[in-house]
């Protein structure tokens, strides 16, 4: 099987490698010629057979994704398929699908979770789109997902848009989980009765009801920097937490934990917080997100969304 992959950043490059190891032929394109297999999108499309071409897009959400899909719409033809795997807002999927359908080009959306660890561990995949097109891609999904039962790392969540909607909610939950661990860490640090805070957290990683991969990563971060002294407590948000809260308001669904976690990230940009250092460290551990060195506060920016977890 042969697919094109557009966007060879933190996740895209690792996905290309995992796919190749799994026996899928991949032609990758990136604006950075040092990592790209071809010189242009046109060259990527030309490398595959008309009517059978599959192009997976992994670029930042918003304008970059729209530009790539628009260009692909002019290069691909009837029977070809576009997969949008970035952290896009689910409402944009219907627009992309409709525009491509006018040319006979199929479209599905995939929410991808796994961060920089996905190459080794596999990616959680949430897919939206036509059942026949999803079935067409199962060999690709089976290589990318974690080992084990398919249903424990992959879901055909529904029609176009369902994949990105599921990923949006996933990331909202992620906000709440990270915030809970971070607040617990700060409370342990606040009272000198616990003299081994990293050890206490590590002791929770087996057998306890709060064990998880995120907890493992917090322990790893503390082992690398026992007091998180090198990390600033300024925490970015990818945009999906905001979308999750927006959807909750529209649906009148109470999300007090996820909302509070989002607002805590906003608060992190206003003053020092050990808890937010822990959240920043977690984002770096699982997603490779940049952290600010201690003392390097800057004015906050409104995020446009990024192609990564969290």
Give structural notes.
The chain has 310 residues and is α/β, with parallel strands linked by helices. The chain contains 13 helices and seven strands. It has helices spanning 10-21, 41-46, 63-75, 90-101, 118-121, 131-136, 138-144, 162-190, 197-203, 213-224, 240-251, 256-267, 274-287; strands at 2-6, 25-29, 54-57, 81-84, 106-113, 124-128, 154-158. Strands 2-1-3-4-5-6-7 form a seven-stranded mixed sheet, sandwiched between helices. The longest helix has 29 residues, at 162-190. The model is unreliable at 298-310 (pLDDT under 50). Helices cover 47% and strands 12% of the residues.
Protein structure class: alpha/beta
Please state how the strands of the largest beta sheet are arranged side by side: 2-1-3-4-5-6-7
Contiguous uncertain segments of 5+ residues = 298-310
Q: Can you count the helices? A: 13
Report the major sheet: 7 strands, mixed
């Amino acid at each position: 099987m042969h697919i094109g992959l557009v966007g060879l950043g933190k996740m895209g490059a690792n996905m290309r490698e995992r796919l190749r190891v799994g026996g899928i032929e991949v032609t990758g394109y990136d604006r950075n010629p040092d990592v790209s297999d071809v010189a242009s999108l046109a060259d990527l499309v030309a490398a595959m057979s008309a009517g059978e071409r599959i192009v997976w897009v992994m670029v930042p959400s918003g304008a970059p994704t729209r530009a790539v899909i628009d260009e692909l719409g002019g290069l691909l033809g009837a029977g070809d398929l576009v997969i949008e795997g970035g952290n896009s807002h689910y409402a944009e999927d219907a627009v992309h699908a409709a525009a491509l359908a006018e040319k006979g080009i199929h479209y599905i959306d995939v929410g991808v979770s796994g961060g920089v660890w996905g190459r080794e561990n596999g990616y959680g995949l949430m897919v939206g789109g036509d059942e026949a097109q999803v079935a067409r891609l199962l060999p690709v999904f089976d290589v990318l997902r974690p080992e084990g039962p398919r249903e424990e790392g992959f879901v055909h969540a529904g029609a176009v848009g369902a994949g990105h909607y599921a990923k949006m909610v996933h990331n909202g939950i992620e906000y709440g989980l990270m915030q809970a661990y971070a607040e617990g860490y700060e409370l342990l640090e606040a009272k000198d009765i616990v003299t081994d805070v990293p050890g206490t957290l590590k002791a929770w990683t087996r057998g306890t009801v709060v064990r998880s991969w995120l907890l493992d990563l917090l322990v790893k971060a503390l082992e690398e920097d026992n007091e998180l002294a090198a990390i600033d407590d300024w925490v970015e948000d990818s945009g999906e937490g905001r979308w999750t809260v927006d959807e909750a308001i529209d649906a009148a669904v109470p999300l007090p934990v996820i909302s509070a976690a989002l607002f805590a990230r906003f608060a992190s940009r206003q003053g020092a917080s050990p808890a937010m250092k822990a959240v920043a460290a977690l984002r770096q551990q699982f997603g490779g997100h940049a952290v600010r060195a201690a003392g390097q506060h800057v004015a906050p920016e409104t995020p446009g969304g990024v192609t990564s977890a969290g």
